[in-house]
Specification:
Blueprint lengths: L1 E2 L4 H14 L3 E6 L2 H4 L2 H11 L4 E8 L1 H7 L4 E3 L5 E6 L25 E3 L6 E5 L20 E5 L5 H10 L5 E6 L22 E6 L1 H10 L7 E5 L15 H12 L5
C-alpha cells in the first residue's frame, strides 16, 4: 500500500525495485495531484508498465489521472483478478464537471485495453457521464465480468446499456446515474437488456433515470435491490412518465424475481 503523494521520487524508486522483484502483486496506490503534480504521469506510466504482474490493483487518482489511465494503450494483465480505479476526491463529485469533455478519443489515440486478463472478474471504476462509450468499449473483457461497480458521479447511459447487453455473467451490479438528467437519453424495454444471473442490483439515480431502468431491464435471479439518492422533484418542473410505482410493477412483471 503506497501513498505516492509523499516523497514521490523515493516512492517511485521503491515501486520500481519492488516490481522488478515480484511475480504477482496486490497494489493499493494513491496518487494525489496536489502533491505529485507533473510527476503523476511518470508514476502512472511506471505502474502501467508492470501490468503483467498485477493481481489486484486498487489505484486512487485525481480526475486528470483517471482520464490519463484510460488513454495509455494496451495493458497485458494475465494475472489480474480485481481492478479498482477510484477518484482521490470522491466526496466532491461536482468537481468532476470541471472536465466535461476532456476525454476525447481522437483518431490514432491510444485507448486503454486491458488484454489477456482471463482471470478478471471484479471491477469498480470511477467514471464521468461525459466519458464516451467509444473510449471504454474495449477497456475490459465485459462478457467475463461477474461484478461491476460504477462509482459516482456515474457513467453515460450508453455504457450502462452496453453493460446490460454485454455483461451476461454479472452477479452484482452497482451504478450511479445521478447526472443523467443533464443528458438526452432514452431506454426502452428489450430482451437484450436481460441479465439472467444478477442477484444484487444497486442504483443511485434521479427519478427519470430510475424509471427508464426499471421499466426496461429484466433481472429474473434478483434477490437484493437497493435504490438510493432518488431526487423528489416537483412534477411540474420534472414530469416523469410512467410513475415510479408503474415502472417497478413492470420491472417485477418482466423479471419475475423473488426478493429476499
Amino acid at each position: 500500500k503506497v501513498n505516492a503523494g509523499k516523497d514521490c521520487l523515493g516512492r517511485r524508486q521503491f515501486l520500481k525495485q519492488w516490481f522488478s522483484r515480484s511475480r504477482a502483486v496486490d497494489l493499493v496506490l494513491t496518487l494525489d495531484t496536489l502533491r505529485v503534480g507533473f510527476q503523476l504521469q511518470d508514476m502512472l506510466s511506471m505502474v502501467c508498465a508492470h501490468s503483467s504482474i498485477w493481481r489486484r490493483l486498487r489505484i486512487s487518482l485525481p480526475w486528470v489521472g483517471i482520464m490519463s489511465f484510460f488513454l495509455v494503450g494496451t495493458l497485458h494483465s494475465p494475472q489480474l483478478e480485481e481492478l479498482v480505479i477510484e477518484c482521490a476526491h470522491s466526496n466532491s463529485p461536482a468537481a468532476a464537471w470541471l472536465y466535461p469533455g476532456h476525454l476525447i478519443v481522437k483518431q490514432g489515440s491510444r485507448k486503454t485495453t486491458i488484454a489477456d486478463c482471463a482471470r478478471l472478474r471484479k471491477v469498480s471504476v470511477a467514471l464521468l457521464p461525459s466519458f464516451p462509450l467509444d473510449s471504454l468499449r474495449e477497456l475490459l473483457p465485459w462478457s467475463k465480468l461477474t461484478e461491476v461497480i460504477i462509482q459516482k458521479p456515474g457513467a453515460h447511459p450508453d455504457l450502462i446499456q452496453h453493460i446490460f447487453t454485454q455483461c451476461k455473467s454479472l452477479v452484482r451490479l452497482k451504478i450511479w446515474t445521478a447526472y443523467w438528467r443533464h443528458l438526452n437519453f432514452s431506454m426502452e424495454p428489450s430482451d437484450e437488456l436481460r441479465l439472467e444471473h444478477i442477484e444484487s442490483f444497486e442504483v443511485t439515480a434521479d427519478l427519470r433515470a430510475l424509471v427508464h431502468l426499471l421499466r426496461s431491464v429484466q433481472l429474473p435471479a434478483l434477490k437484493f435491490l437497493t435504490l438510493s439518492g432518488i431526487a423528489d422533484y416537483n412534477d411540474e418542473q420534472y414530469p416523469v412518465q410512467p410513475t415510479l410505482a408503474t415502472a417497478f410493477a413492470e420491472f417485477q412483471e418482466h423479471s419475475q424475481f423473488n426478493l429476499l
